[in-house]
């Protein structure tokens, strides 16, 4: 009371910050375990098992994700956010052309993971296509930024259209049921880059 009367700031509350950090770690752990569970068992994956493998109680799981659908959607959105963040991280740590190539390889990995959890995603209202369409505002700009950095640095021709890269790699998704598609997709990345060099 005296402190407040004299206008002095209240002391910080480290325990609250620790709780928030713990909650974030719990959330990230749940999403990672859930991704593996949904990829392995589909939408029928046991939420009790996900909680146990995450090292938390059921109540904590439901506090973060009140329904199975909410957890499935959060898993997919988390993977999209990781992919978008990786583009920024690679751009900050690698030369533009190397960053573009590395990020497109990560995109192929993302498609492979998405293929595994699509059966679970169908449980969400609007199905997997709603989630996939909803991720475009994060993925498409990342493609454009990455390609344009390589153009601006002179490593790709000035008339290179980022959408050519987008269309080619998005098209990869439609071949994901074919054996060996990932190796083929990686070769396509190198073909795209080589064909766009000055």
Tell me what the structure shows.
The chain has helices spanning 2-5, 14-41, 47-54, 58-64, 68-93, 96-121, 127-134, 136-152, 162-172, 181-195. It is mainly alpha-helical and 198 residues long. The chain has 2 domains: 14-66, Arc Repressor Mutant, subunit A; 76-198, Tetracycline Repressor, domain 2 (Orthogonal Bundle), CATH 1.10.357. α2 packs across α3 (47-54). The chain is elongated, with a radius of gyration of 21 Å.
In short:
This protein has 198 residues and is mainly alpha-helical.
Q: Helices and strands in order, then pairings?
A:
Layout: H1 2-5, H2 14-41, H3 47-54, H4 58-64, H5 68-93, H6 96-121, H7 127-134, H8 136-152, H9 162-172, H10 181-195
Q: Predict the CATH topology of the largest domain.
A: Tetracycline Repressor, domain 2
Query: What count of helical segments does DSSP give?
Result: 10
In CATH, the architecture of the largest domain is Orthogonal Bundle
Total individual domains: 2
Distance between the termini: 71 Å
CATH homology superfamily name of the largest domain: Tetracycline Repressor, domain 2
| Alpha-carbon Rg, integer | 21 Å
Q: What is the H/E string? A: HHHHHHHHHH
Shape field: elongated
The description of the largest β-sheet is: none
The quaternary state of the protein chains shown equals single chain
Structural class: mainly alpha
Mean pLDDT equals 86
The CATH class of the largest domain is identified as Mainly Alpha
Estimate what percentage of residues fall within beta strands. under 5%
């Amino acid at each position: 009371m005296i402190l407040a009367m004299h206008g002095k700031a209240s002391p910080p509350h480290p325990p609250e910050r620790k709780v928030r950090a713990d909650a974030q770690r719990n959330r990230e752990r749940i999403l990672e375990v859930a991704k593996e569970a949904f990829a392995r068992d589909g939408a029928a994956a046991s939420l009790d098992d996900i909680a146990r493998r995450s090292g938390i109680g059921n109540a904590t799981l439901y506090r973060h994700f009140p329904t199975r659908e909410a957890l499935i959607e959060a898993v997919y959105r988390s993977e999209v956010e990781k992919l978008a963040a990786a583009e920024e991280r690679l751009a900050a740590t690698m030369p533009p052309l190397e960053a573009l190539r590395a990020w497109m390889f990560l995109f192929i990995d993302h498609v492979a993971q998405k293929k595994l959890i699509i059966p679970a995603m169908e449980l969400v209202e609007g199905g997997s296509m709603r989630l996939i369409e909803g991720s475009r505002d994060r993925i498409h700009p990342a493609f454009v930024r990455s390609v344009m950095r390589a153009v601006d640095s002179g490593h790709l021709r000035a008339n290179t259209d980022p959408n050519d890269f987008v269309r080619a790699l998005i098209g990869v998704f439609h071949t994901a049921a074919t054996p060996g598609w990932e190796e083929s997709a990686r070769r396509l990345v190198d073909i795209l880059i080589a064909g766009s060099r000055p």
